[in-house]
Write a structure and sequence with these properties.
The protein is an alpha+beta fold. The chain folds into 2 domains: 7-161, Roll (2,3-Dihydroxybiphenyl 1,2-Dioxygenase, domain 1); 173-263, 2,3-Dihydroxybiphenyl 1,2-Dioxygenase, domain 1. It has 6 helices and 15 strands. The strands form 2 sheets. Strands 1, 2, 3, 4, 5, 6, 7, 8 and 9 form a 9-stranded mixed β-sheet that branches. A hairpin with a 4-residue loop joins β2 and β3 (41-47). The radius of gyration is 17 Å and the shape is globular. It starts with 6 loop residues before the first strand and ends with a strand. The mean pLDDT is 95.
């Protein structure tokens, strides 16, 4: 059995990347500069300690190539997500040491997989320079979670990608600790999620014991949890947050359709 995979990042689809950067920045997050993909989308990242939030918009629809058969289109998936669902978390991405091994593992488990995909782009560094970053992706899907995207990401240039200046946040954000998933058929979704993550029924992915929670409902990623250095220190940077027991919660209306829960 494969080892459980950590959360690499989540994709949050937005109509307006500049407005999304402003909203997340207003909650104490440091956002990277806007970057453009070669397939019609643009993003800004919120890098934490080992994983990140990707804020994504459509940059040039004319560059988007639709998926066909065994070819999955990242850009087309997110274009369709925005058109049918509006803003929100559209994809869950797990970290990979070897993209090809992920595909082999998933095929052995009977998961629906797609052709591998590689790309690179220029990433603006804190000093204003630009350097190449490169990635290898493996996509999977399941009928139990229609409209949601799942893939692993293997980074080939981590020394260029991760930057301490971008990983430092006024709210003390450390990591994405968990992601909530809803599905109309939780049992069927559970089978897929265990295979996708390399985890067991109670521990889907390696980051935390309960890093992926599954409930009944329309297919969606309604909420994420972010661990901060100190909740009391984070609170002044979260003017839209409401106290919920031992956590602070910012509603989806503030952060592009995603409920964000902050914990120590």
């Amino acid at each position: 059995m494969s080892a459980p995979r950590d959360i690499d990042h989540i994709v949050v689809m937005t109509r307006d990347l500049a407005a999304a950067r402003a909203a997340w920045s207003a909650c104490g997050f440091t956002c990277t500069p806007r970057a453009v993909h070669p397939f019609g989308t643009a993003n800004a990242l919120i890098q934490m300690q080992g994983n990140f939030v990707e804020l994504l918009e459509i940059n040039d629809e004319s560059q988007i190539i639709r998926g066909d058969g065994d070819r999955f289109s990242f850009a087309a998936h997110n274009l369709d997500f925005l058109a049918t669902r509006g803003e929100g978390m559209s994809m869950l991405v797990l970290a990979s040491d070897d993209r090809d091994d992920d595909l082999t593992d998933w095929r052995a488990k009977g998961l629906r997989v797609y052709d591998p995909f590689d790309f690179e782009r220029q990433a603006k560094q804190p000093d204003g320079s630009s350097q190449r970053v490169a990635f290898s992706l493996a996509f999977a899907s399941d009928d139990a979670l229609p409209g949601l995207g799942f893939f692993t990401c293997q980074q080939h240039t981590p020394e260029v990608f991760w930057k301490p200046d971008y990983q430092t946040h006024a709210n003390g954000a450390r990591r994405i600790a968990s992601v909530a998933v809803t599905a109309p058929d939780p049992q069927a979704a559970d089978t897929f999620l265990r295979g996708f993550s390399g985890g067991t029924r109670t521990t889907y992915i390696a980051l935390d014991q309960d890093s992926l929670t599954l409930e009944e409902g329309p297919p969606a990623f309604p909420e994420i949890t972010i661990r901060v250095a100190d909740l009391a220190d984070a609170e002044p940077h979260l003017p839209a947050a409401e106290r919920d027991g031992e956590s602070l919660v910012v509603g989806g209306s503030f952060l592009n359709g995603v409920i964000v829960r902050f914990i120590d």
